[in-house]
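Risk register update: the risk of archive-format incompatibility is retired. Evidence:
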Amino acid sequence: MSQTDDSKPAGAQVTDAPQMPLFFTNVTGVNPAETPALRLDRAHGHGFAAKTQTVPIGLGEFDAAARTYPILYTTGPNPVPVALVGLDARGNLFVGPDGAWRADTYIPAYVRCFPFVLIDDPSSGSTFIGMEATASCLGNDVGDRLFEDGKPTQILNDTINLCTTVRDNINAAAAMARALAAEGLLEDEEAHVTFTGGGDLHIRGFQLLRTDRLDGVSDATFLEWRRRGWLGPIYAQLYSSAQWGRLIDLATIQRAAA
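Archived output:
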């Protein structure tokens, strides 16, 4: 995971998701009465994700995500699985200056949901579809219409279905992470990366699964995990450690171009 150099490390921290959903700062409801001509233009790309270091992933994404990113677990009492997409404050190594996500790599489903997100209303017990009101991909002139005659188009219905699936998958992944933590299988880790061209950094605030402790899990628990479809994601996360090299290579290129 490291190369040779003696410069001082720069710190980087993998953190839990903020209270406002990742990528969102001004969420409003999607209401045809207020925005009847609203359109979605996906050609604007993924510039909104350029500064993030991690992206939450759902249970059904582990296999696909593990082919591109290291999968980590956040620290704290409620760990969640995340794909590591950047090594420091320079941000996402998979989003270029033009906002395009790197070709031939998996785009996490949470990213594909933007600028939409499901919002729970505790006062009414209901859930509604919200949007980032100032997102550059939303407007009245270009893109796919979200409403026709005051009713959702297929584009909006598909988006709502995607957001619902993503939320359910992320909740399922979080349940698995909590179960792993309860069995004592997750442990705090940190990574030290040293670049041959100069500089190094520490990545802190994440957990990894201790494979040497898996044998201590009871047969009943292991069978329950298999029933819940957790074994594939557990081993995919272990396999994903091979992707650290990819991130280091991309970070080295980024630093050389700076």
